[in-house]
Amino acid sequence: MRITLIGAGRVATHLAMVLQLQHQIVQIFSRDLQRAETLADQVNAQAITELQQLDPQTDLVIIAVSDQAISSVIQAITQYLPDNLIVHTSGSTDLAILEQKHPRAGVLYPLQTFSFERAVNWSETPLFVEAVQAQDLTLLTDLANSLSQRVYQYSSTQRLTLHLAAVFACNFSNYCYDMAKQVVDAEQVDFSLLYPLILETANKATTNNPKDMQTGPAMRGDQNILNMHRQLLVDSNRTDLQDIYRLMSESILKRHH
Amino acid sequence: MRITLIGAGRVATHLAMVLQLQHQIVQIFSRDLQRAETLADQVNAQAITELQQLDPQTDLVIIAVSDQAISSVIQAITQYLPDNLIVHTSGSTDLAILEQKHPRAGVLYPLQTFSFERAVNWSETPLFVEAVQAQDLTLLTDLANSLSQRVYQYSSTQRLTLHLAAVFACNFSNYCYDMAKQVVDAEQVDFSLLYPLILETANKATTNNPKDMQTGPAMRGDQNILNMHRQLLVDSNRTDLQDIYRLMSESILKRHH
Known about the structure:
oxidoreductase activity (chains A, B); DUF2520 (chains A, B); TM1727-like_C_sf (chains A, B); N-(1-d-carboxylethyl)-l-norvaline Dehydrogenase, domain 2; NAD(P)-bd_dom_sf (chains A, B); DUF2520 domain-containing protein (chains A, B); 257 residues; homodimer; alpha/beta; 14% strand; 8-stranded mixed β-sheet; Rossmann fold; 11 helices
């Protein structure tokens, strides 16, 4: 397939890197020429900074930009590529938002967290596809199957549920690590001491129900320790961590008592 | 060494299992005879349910009970074993609490989360030792070195900091997994779809600064998605998750903008 990527951020970069192994990346669009060129050079594509430069000889346009920009980007693209399949990669953006502007719209959503610093294990990454037209759904499913062993045809509603769950499982758990690091950093204690704990907690959640794996003072209803920890956060003037400590502990207590 | 364990819960069980490989477990105490016998049978020890049954021929007594019970347990034991080394395994309990009641007091704190269902990788688990008397600190350090490659002599204050950080890194991240499961369960979406995301998020935190690894709508300041997710939680009547979603998102927003 001939594929065009709109965006040169983390998702666009990781997608381009894996897609170029089996497909041809035609163009990379980014308003930032340097970012477009950096990625385009890596995948033998043309870097473009204006949508009117889009090559109509493409089988698939993948929009990998921030959710807020998706609607205006598809509106701008459809005049240049009225007959091409155009998909977005967002968890929470309904297919209907593309469909209003473009007849051949679809979704290719990878359920993973992407960083420039780390490679992605694509074959294990769940991919969710959706399309307005049946033949496009087949095409997207075939493409997704070429990347991953875990491909699912999900509705926009199911995808939104998954994305909301992912915010808890990924974004919020990462913020818990960030807060833990703030706590140890303030006392010159080495954050790497917590690595085995972080990894075991995550591994447990993939073999057992996380509810059954809950440990800690809130789960035990140990008010002495909870008060001691809260006081420590008050003393060190960490208002945000203090509020989160209180709310999370109260919620865990309720769930387990 | 001849070792006595007070308690037959998760920490006591995992400690007994690893200690018996190189040491002799003399007795297991639990008020619950069946629990004491279950563990004692596994490690060739005697099960006891009364503290006056304690055998004074022991080199080390490990108190692995809930934090609230530590103070009363040491008070009860010291009359039977006035000259033996007695330690607790708690992150947040100060050595002074034992020291007030017993002259040879110490701490052996494993920084890990323990479940009956899962084996513990002891050689990678950081162990923190502390003791009132210098020769006991040496003895505990040697014992800890026989279990783990990562042994540290930490003060009660440093240990408290670690334990507070562990609540964020382990207890709260696990609760994030639990909440994610509640979200997908309500829509009959399979929780295992989130496993690669959970594992990658945890792995990232052990190779990069979690702050730099933050992703998601709150980090991007995407108010549309934040409002959509909040509304979804309001509609499904999940007050707790809604409150936590709001507070965590606001805190992430503040940290990244």
